[in-house]
Amino acid sequence: MSLDSPVHDVGYVGEDDSEFFRAIHGRSLNALNSVYMLPVDQDEIKRSEFHHRMLQFVFHGKNYIGPVKRALQFGERRRVLDLGTGAGYWAIDIADEFPGAEVIGIDLAPIQPRSVPPNCTFELCDLDQSNIPYPDNHFDLVHARSMHTGIRDYPRFLQEIVRILRPGGVILLIEPNLTPVIATEGQTTDVSLPPDDTDFHGWFTLWNTYKGCLRLKGVDVTVPQQLSELLAMTQAFEDIVTHDGNVPVGFWPQGDAMILTVGQLQWLDYELLLPALKPLFLDCGIARSNVERIIDEAQRNLYRPPVPFSTLLHVIHATKRSHTISISGQHGGSPVLSN
User: Fold this and answer.
1) pLDDT for 218-242, tens place per residue?
2) Looking at the domain that runs over 18-320, which CATH code has it been given?
3) What is the pTM of this model?
4) Which helix (H) or strand (E) holds 29?
5) How wide is the angle at C-alpha 158 spanned by C-alphas 119 and 210, nearest 5°?
6) How far apart are CA 150 and CA 169, in angstroms?
7) How far, in Å, CA of 192 to CA of 232, rounded?
């Protein structure tokens, strides 16, 4: 473990976990971190499940892409770390799939189930303000998804992953882009403003507001589209492979039942995300009436979209190198990701 890591980095949950929650603007939030302001209540647990199931469809029934099995199949005891585990769905599934591996999930709030596989544990830690509280070269696989909105210094975060990942270990990062994607004439384009001929301003206003609030919190909202470059800058990884995919939102995909299911799950995710943004918007000083208007207009576009739209998902995996760097890439804009 790094010498400057505080000894109290990790929290363990007992019977009374009330100290880890705070009520803000009618929702329950974590009490450890003031940057990450999405709720940690039952609606957010449900949203986490929709997101997890959607990614399983995107990954063709699996919980990962990349050389995960190679990293975990050898050795007496493999170790997996799930950063920002949320409700713990990914960590639990990995523990079931790899019963010989020790799986640890870290999050800001104890919203994970108490009944889990014997090789799965959950711990609390604010990864934005603390070092990752584990020894050097300790893990065979580190997984982090939808984390960047709670991390102010993402390069430092990656350096911590480098430290705790063993040579030959695998990193898997998944981050959705925060710029809307629309479909026009069969093409998908990520744009900051809606086309002049569509009534889609509510959706774009919400995402621009979200990005503005995150910037006020010190978050770099361009991290998702820079993952490959940020990993390369560490000079610690080889076989860096990027998969970019347009995930449909809603019920518009036709002709492919799997892609339609992905769109439905992403729509359900967003239906719960929109009201979940209210505490962040209010905390950043936006008047309540404006917050309610922004969310209402975005919901109107979600329920009755004037054009088909998507979200751009950035997925990247790499292997911690021993001596040399070899960077490769795969880029695409298909509705689903492939190995």
Assistant:
1) 999 999 999 999 999 999 999 999 9
2) 3.40.50.150
3) 0.88
4) strand 27-30
5) 100
6) 24
7) 27
Tokens standing for 126? 């604010």
User: Given this model, what pLDDT does residue 22 score?
Assistant: 94
**Which pLDDT belongs to residue 337?**
46
Q: Hey, which residues does 82 pair with through a beta bridge? A: 105, 143
Distance of alpha carbon 70 from alpha carbon 168, whole angstroms: 10
Q: Helix, strand, coil % (nearest 5) of the chain?
A: 35, 25, 40
Greatest Cα pair distance, the chain, in angstroms, is 61
User: CA 139 → CA 136, 143, 166, 171, distances in Å?
Assistant: 8, 10, 6, 10
The per-residue pLDDT of the chain, averaged, comes to 88
Domain range annotation of the chain: 18-320
Q: Residue 163 in 3-state DSSP?
A: helix
Report the C-alpha gap between 68 and 102 in whole angstroms.
14
Return d(Cα 244, Cα 156) in angstroms, integer: 24
DSSP characters for 298-338?
Answer: HHHHHHS-SS-EEEEEEEEEEEE-SS---B-------SS--
